[in-house]
Description:
By secondary structure, this protein is mainly α. Helices cover 77% and strands 0% of the residues. The model has no long low-confidence stretch (mean pLDDT 82).
Amino acid sequence: MGATTAKSAFGQGVLLGLPFILVIVPFGALFGVVATEAGLNLWATMGFSALVIAGAAQFTALSLMGEDAATWLVIVTALAVNLRMAMYSAALVPHLGAAPLGQRACAAYLLVDQTFAAASATYDQRPEMDLRAKLALFFGIATPIVPLWYVSSLAGALLGASIPEAWALDFALPLTFIAMLGPMLRTLAHVGAALVSIALSLAFAGLPAGVGLLLAGGAAMVTGALIETWSERRA
């Protein structure tokens, strides 16, 4: 595809990323507030957001730090929460794996739940897209999301406790995942994996932070693979 097509794909990506602003802004602001209340200074808060750029893992780490957990436990738990990024990466290899190292590194940094969900769904719908267009689409999706994550985190850190509790910014996290998960439940394997994940996450809620999520995620992947294999054999 030519440059015009790549430019068009980038514009489409930006449009796909815009709706996520509705949850990225309050989610980032909430992190800034919570990090400040947990004792992190402005530089530490912004460094956390810029380097980790994974809200669920950041909140998990802050929670454990507030409980004076050991450093190794904070790191391992945050990595467990972010284990889904490895699955996202594997799913994108057929689409972006042939890109130059620098572009793959940039895409890896920008790989968050929202960029994966929107890009993956579009790639499935438009198998005719070439590598340039796919990269342009991915970076377009990230364009309105990532900068606003930084800005909203900064705003939350600066405003801190002045944000009224009545605003209920903590709605952003569950709303984000619900909005992304719904459209992705397209097959029996997807639904089965989701149900197992939900059931085991609730069953393992009493385990140390991160452990239950890790076990539930692993069981959900196995369930999805088994159902997919069974469906293919029947077909």
